[in-house]
Design a protein that fits this description.
By secondary structure, the chain is an all-alpha fold. It has ten helices and no strands. It folds into two domains: about 1-55, Orthogonal Bundle (Arc Repressor Mutant, subunit A), CATH 1.10.10.60; about 65-200, Tetracycline Repressor, domain 2 (Orthogonal Bundle), CATH 1.10.357.10. The chain has helices spanning about 10-30, 40-45, 50, 60-80, 90-105, 105-115, 120-130, 135-145, 150-175, 180-200. Helix 1 (about 10-30) packs across helix 4 and helix 5 packs antiparallel against helix 10. The longest helix has 23 residues, at about 10-30.
Length: about 200
């Protein structure tokens, strides 16, 4: 029987799960999805492969658990940092700035989502993208105040364009070895585009 590494079974399981996720993070970041073997994750965590299966049934579930565990709390921090009493357009700019700041601080995690995650099967990719639901919903709410007639279709069109601008900027920054060096120029360019688009629309 494996040695218990904590005072209680529950705490032990929590520690083992965390160790597996830490090891998975390092290996997925270094080797990609296809190049990472479950046996190597287990070994890096100091566990046997059979023990890993007690926590994650396969590599896809391990990868998704890692993203679902680590991304939402960071996005919640970005959303919580947006001032409530400012105009929607300013909130959108703050959301862009906060998102790019998060990218600078969490480059490897961003690469897992936007680069490595593309190796997943289609259904798993759709599940992974759900971690971005909170900022997507926030953008949609902001968008209702940006259009003259807040028809759902127009709001959806505007916010899809803004979301594409944000995600495209992140993906562009991740093409650099050190995304932090590219972020200031990419962010400035995208904010200028946002402002120009608003002026064209009379906002």
């Amino acid at each position: 029987m494996p040695r218990i590494r904590a005072a209680t079974i529950l705490e032990h399981k929590s520690l083992m799960r965390a160790a597996l996720l830490d090891a998975a993070f390092d290996l997925f970041a270094a080797r990609g999805f296809a190049g990472t073997r479950l046996a190597d994750v287990a070994a890096a965590a100091g566990l046997g492969r059979t023990t890993l299966y007690e926590y994650f049934p396969n590599k896809v579930e391990l990868f998704l658990a890692l993203i679902e565990d680590r991304v939402p709390p960071l996005l919640d921090e970005v959303m919580a940092s947006l001032p409530a009493g400012i105009a929607p357009r300013e909130r959108i700019e703050r959301l862009f700035s906060g998102s790019f700041g998060l990218l600078v601080d969490q480059q490897e995690l961003a690469r897992l989502v936007f680069v490595v995650g593309r190796e997943l099967p289609a259904a798993a990719r759709r599940r992974m993208w759900r971690v971005l639901e909170a900022p997507k919903r926030a953008l949609w709410r902001m968008g209702r105040d940006l259009v003259d007639d807040p028809d759902d279709r127009e709001v959806d069109y505007v916010m899809r364009a803004i979301a594409d601008l944000l995600v495209g900027g992140i993906e562009q920054a991740l093409t650099y070895r050190d995304a932090a060096t590219a972020v200031p120029d990419i962010l400035a360019t995208r904010l200028r585009f946002l402002r120009a688009a608003r002026e064209d629309r009379g906002h």
